[in-house]
Amino acid sequence: MDQLTFDIVVIGSGPGGEGAAMQAVKLGKNIAAIERFPKIGGGCTHWATIPSKALRHAIFQMTNLVNNKLFRDAGISVSLSFPELRRTAASVIEKQVEMRLGFYERNSVPIFHGQARFRDAHTVEVCDQYGGKRELSAAAFVIATGSRPYRPPDIDFGHPRVFDSDTILGLGYTPRSITIYGAGIVGCEYASMFRNLGVKVNLVNTRDKLLEFLDDEIIDALSYHLRDRGVIIRHGEAYTQVELLDDGAVLHLKSGKQLKTDILFWAAGRTGNSEEMGLEAIGIQPNHRGQLEVNEHFQTSQPHIYAVGDVIGPPALASAAYTQGRYAAQHLINGHCDRALIKDIPTGIYTSPEISSLGKTERDLTAAGVPYEVGQAMFKSLARAQITGQTVGMLKLLFHRETLQILGIHCFGANASEIIHIGQAIMSQPGEQNSLNYFLNSTFNYPTMAEAYRVAALNGYNRLF
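The chain above was modelled as a monomer; its predicted structure follows.
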């Protein structure tokens, strides 16, 4: 078997793998990429982030049309099924794959398709779907194989009434009702989407609050608006069994409740894609969820083998994976990397409305004894929100009472994942340049959603006196 030699081999072509490969090749290294699926882009492009957000946008457009008085008065109405709405993602996926393939081609990075398996600490074997094998050797590796939904062994995921985030986009009809087990980011996002389609939704949360890592006020706002839309949220529950029927699924809970709906969507946990890679043989032991342990520089127990993205666990965001990949490549090649690259990564949650946050929560600051103040801008008071009709939401700034340093930014409402980046730019500035004064003294276009920063800054500053 011929053996090809490279400086670095990147395993996985999702955001983490792409970030590592492109950064390494720009630093002059000879790179190869391995992807086990026929097309590059990983789960992010093909069955997770991109298709789900395209679906969300299609649902948003349809519901806006349905609820718009201007179109109702004109007799214009539309009602599309789940698979019809889902098809809008196909063209987006195709464009993403073509664009990302271009990155590899322009930078002369060969892509080997097949399952990667380590033969030793510096050699990986690639087995393609036809039984062909290639050996690649390298001085270093970056593992960016992603993750998949966790599937309890007692649940039949082959049953036509059971879905997870990898299979839900293949749903061929609009169900009348759905039970979503797991109220993490994926569960909350799909609860919003299905409810906006008019589907009856049970959202079963194994914890006491939704998305406990968020600021409490944002958690309360999300809970209120989901319930206001008609989502039934059940906190502190755990399942005992899933009963599968021809016409639906019954989720049995330890509390004695039985929830029967047309379909069950399992959204509780994820498993790292680390199996069948021969990692144990080279001294890398995945944990019980298939995730790889890494140090602060994303090195595994083998210092020349790095791991990034969902395969190492939280935050399990495409944006974080890409940044981690870039960091790993720079550290691998240069022996060091600026920690600022992976500091303060914003969270973007595509519920309806959106949520995005960065930095500390009020809970964090209170526990740490930091003297902080709060500045708020309610979207309903902004001219731009009134014009667009998207008045639900708020921007919340947390800042130090004495230095005026921005400590946290929390946004709930339309375009929150875009709005957050204005504050991020200021939070990332050194020393006194990270200050509430920027928002107090800057002129924002009017009417815009960005104006919320000025309103929130004035609101908070006035609380100091």
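The first strand starts at residue 3 and ends at 11.
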